[in-house]
TrEMBL record:
The active site is at 33 (proton acceptor), 113 (proton donor). It comes from Demequina mangrovi. GO terms for biological process: amino acid biosynthetic process; aromatic amino acid family biosynthetic process; chorismate biosynthetic process; quinate catabolic process. Belongs to the type-II 3-dehydroquinase family. The gene is aroQ. This is 3-dehydroquinate dehydratase.
Length: 157
């Protein structure tokens, strides 16, 4: 809990993590992922979090090790997670194991996707993350993040 100048004395911490290629939002296949940039998404997500009394930080990395280390950080800091694992969704057992640490620590971890992977290529139909997530929200564009934050707020509020 922080009681600093940001004024979220009772706010719950949530880390929003975006995986590989999501820094390119806005220009990456906009017909699928929309025109909102990653910076714009970060502003929206932070504001939605504040509306829900959640203190939100947004990070992005193309590097699997960063995502694994950030999950460890969340366990140590008792921070809930909203995770878009991007392509790691489909094959990263290392990230899955790190997410399992978050869930078994009693924290909420919501898997999010902008698109609905089940309506896309077959390799996207498998998520190795879903089995260790609290739940999954997919297919609503940037609204997937808002719904995920609402889920966190309801579970932990
Ligand atoms: C994604 C879906 C993944 O299959 C893809 O690799 C991504 C983005 C989504 O948000 O829809 O990078 O996670």
């Amino acid at each position: 809990m922080r009681s600093d100048v940001r004024g979220y004395a009772d706010a719950m911490n949530v880390l929003v993590v975006n995986g590989p290629n999501l820094r390119r939002l806005g220009t990456r296949e906009p017909e699928k992922y929309g025109s909102t940039t990653h910076d714009e998404l970060a502003v929206l997500v932070t504001q939605w979090g504040a509306d829900l009394q959640l203190e939100v930080e947004v990070r992005q990395s193309d590097d699997e090790a960063d995502l694994v280390h950030w999950m460890h950080e969340c366990v140590d800091a008792q921070t809930h997670v909203v995770l878009n694992p991007a392509a790691f969704t489909h094959y990263s057992y290392a990230l899955r194991d790190a997410c399992a640490l978050v869930s078994t620590a009693g924290l909420t971890l919501v898997e999010v996707h902008l698109t609905n992977p089940h309506a896309r290529e077959e390799f996207r139909h498998t998520s190795v993350i879903s089995g260790v997530a609290s739940g999954t929200i997919a297919g609503f564009g940037v609204d997937s993040y808002r719904l995920a934050l609402e889920a966190v707020a309801r579970r932990v509020g």
